[in-house]
């Protein structure tokens, strides 16, 4: 049966054309990224310090010895993360790196499938190859694999957490989030979603897991206290290299502190207003609320805190996928201009205009994250003001959103063919257009 799916066929519908065209492109792109680009590597190697720290941990040597005066990647995981990741050093470096690349690639693929299912799409839908190709064409997936870091596993943890959160499987959701926080605190802002939903068991479990793992790792480590006395303070410092956060770029361009804080506080106000509108008017629309709020929280944490790096943007895939929802805040062109800024693998360094090219390259991620937050604020704010003017509060969505088919049920949304026009009974029976049957067949095919 599986081989029959590979049998060459001529597409009969638009949906078939898109699927037949995109699946080979998506699969070959995945193979290239995993087995060519990632294995080839790059001058930036996030895996080497992690492997060395794991090797030192297994051999009872000091782990937190990084030279923070250099710009090379440093080992920054806490003792709990060291405990979890130490098995990678059981084999030699090269084979270990290959296995870690494969682990992250598999994690990203599982996350891709879970993301499809979260929005009620199947592998037979158009969304499957579109999403797969988009993910593996992005900077965040490419550099996660090439630099060989743990972000692919964090994306899988995020997807598992969101699904378990929505299903009210609080203990398991807390365990998954806690394990991710034990390695890196990237997903820690998502705890706020559990707090406002009053899922206290989830919160308690997520906090307890890294604490318990730290307690286990402490007596097994040679210098665990140095993470808190030496590494943690460095994490809260603002560095002026490989840092797309507002304070990082402010340091690089020499902005005065008052201007930097003005920008940060202004953006913080926009974020707080957006989160308030989401909580006040959308928390019952669970999928929209959770995916949108998670995107706002994570983007704000990278943009406003001391460190934000471009490949963190992988964690925004659930938020970006929410574009299939009728009331998504991403159904406008400025949102996708923002997405281009922080997901595109294009380089803007220019030999002809070096200063302009360098500024575009260094600032596009910061501007992309910032524009995304501005778009969310403007869309939600406009909906709120329009609803207040027309007396629709507490319902913010206009009638056309509420009455439209839900993409989570149909699985197609705007990919579906338009319905035939409604005719007045007085007009009498009309001949069906020749292409109407084909449109119905096409719609059914897309829904599959």
TrEMBL record:
What is the membrane topology here? Multi-pass membrane protein
Using the record for this protein, list the coiled-coil segments as residue ranges, or answer none.
Answer: none
GO MF terms here are: glycosyltransferase activity
Where does the sequence pass through the membrane?
A: 20-39, 98-115, 145-165, 171-193, 200-220, 258-279, 286-304, 362-385
What is the first-listed, main subcellular location in coarse terms? membrane
Q: Which EC class is this protein assigned?
A: transferase
What's the domain of life for this entry?
A: Bacteria
**What family is it from?**
Belongs to the glycosyltransferase 87 family.
**What's the protein name?**
Glycosyltransferase family 87 protein
Instruction: Please report the organism this UniProt entry assigns to the protein.
Output: Nocardia fusca
